[in-house]
Amino acid sequence: MVQASSLHLEMRGISKNFPGVQALSNVSLHLFPGECLGIIGENGAGKSTLIKILGGVHSPTAGEILIDGLPVTIDTPADATDLGIRIIHQELNLCDNLDVTSNIFLGRETCTGGPVRLLDRKRMRQSARALLDRVGLQVPTSTVVGALSTGMRQLVEIAKALAVEARILVMDEPTSALSQSEAERLFEIIRRLNEEGVSILYISHRMPEILRLTNRVLCLRDGLAVGEVATDQTNHDELVRLMIGRDLADVFEKDNHPANTVTLEARSIRFTGLPNTFSFQIHRGEILGLAGLVGAGRTELASALFGLPPIAAGQVSIEGRPVRIRSPRDAIRLGLSMVPEDRRRYGLVLPQTVAENLVLGVQGRDGPARLKRAKPIEQMAHELIGRMRIKTPSPETVAMNLSGGNQQKIVLGKWLAVEPKVLILDEPTRGIDVAAKQEIYRIICDLAKAGLAILMISSEMEEILGLSDRVMVMHEGHIVGTVERSEMDEEKIMRMASGLDP
């Protein structure tokens, strides 16, 4: 029996009540020095509430927290930091208008000595450079964070956390926007931190990461701790079964067959940001996967098709007809829709209701007055909620109060309401749980069966392999090849994405 004093962290009998909601009920966990404990559970299971209690955002209704065997009170995030607890949240906590150095040292700025204390920018830049090198992010420390991609912003957040000598580090979906190479770098950091005695709580929906990194796994379901297992004594299927309370059928049920009809064709297109030209086709009913490492140019290519920025040269044709896409409004009018990588920043108006978000696409295309004449907003919203199986108390529920999976369904529903011919999906399941992913996969496959042409960007190889009819691979701004479904192989695609194979 391990003595309590040898434990780094204990959370005993933690419960949390919100008005009308029992978010946590008698949840306990313990964490040893140098250990990585995985926490899994569907969206809404209580994971976020638990770490917000540990981080001083919420106070528990019942229970206690002990650090090194001693009871502690964590009323504020500052209390957590003073106790050596650092949390990397899934939704990034960065200031877009500040540079990388300022973000890393925000609130902990280094000053010069002497009677007049000034910011020591040189020392902070040097320290920031070392931290960025540690997480493998090769950008100038003077880069404004708002100009970085989501994956790069995630690495800045991790560097910011590593700048503090935390003894207990909580990582909430840290690889959700990272490429495989960036994730591998993070895994090396986690292993090194564990060796140095840092304890880590690792929250992820990605079971391979949980199995690879953690010593033990705690599963939450509906606010309850429903099981704890040693990682070396479990497997992927058991963890999924524990998490959702039932056996999960085959996640990828792909049986549609694309037509030979070309829906979208790009011929030698070029756009601002990448000097190269691109040519490809997407067929009716096809899911064309777009694979590549973060920074390869996948999002830039997809955004250019949507008019962000406009294509500078070359020709795009839709159903055989040459078109000009100078803005997103043009794209929508011509039958293109795009689900962005960062749904909270670019896909939703979070303070608005579910209904208001669902009709935004139609309003943007037709205008509010025409929409009201064509079909009442309430009727359209109800139809989309049913079609997308959005779990919401009411169409009038504010979008920010729903889970990540349901928010993503709103973004999908918003664009399907305009009845597009081509759907661009940029990381369609980023940050959502296993069960919600399965529903998104079902929707994507159903849309392809109905004849929609789909361009899907994903950093999750199992999605690329499971859903794509063909895979187009990018490396450093080039399309380096296309792989047919019969020839798909994870190693082959990753070698192409890394520039190792043509």
Description:
34% of the residues lie in helices and 25% in strands. The chain contains 19 helices and 20 strands. The chain has helices at residues 47-54, 77-82, 100-104, 121-134, 150-162, 180-195, 207-213, 236-244, 298-305, 328-334, 343-347, 354-358, 360-366, 368-374, 377-388, 404-416, 434-449, 461-467, 490-497; strands at residues 9-18, 21-31, 36-40, 62-67, 70-72, 85-88, 168-172, 199-203, 216-221, 224-230, 262-271, 274-283, 287-291, 311-318, 321-323, 336-339, 422-426, 453-457, 470-475, 478-484. The strands form 4 sheets. A 6-stranded mixed sheet has the order 6-7-8-3-9-10, with helices on both faces. It has a 6-stranded mixed sheet with strand order 16-17-18-13-19-20, sandwiched between helices.
How far apart the termini lie comes to 56 Å
Q: In terms of structural class, how would the helical and strand content be classed?
A: alpha/beta
Report the top-level CATH class of the largest domain.
Alpha Beta
Overall tally of domains: 3
Going by CATH, the homologous superfamily of the largest domain would be P-loop containing nucleotide triphosphate hydrolases
Helical proportion, percent range: 25-40%
Let me know the number of strands: 20
Which CATH architecture of the largest domain? Answer: 3-Layer(aba) Sandwich
Provide the low-confidence segments as ranges. 1-5
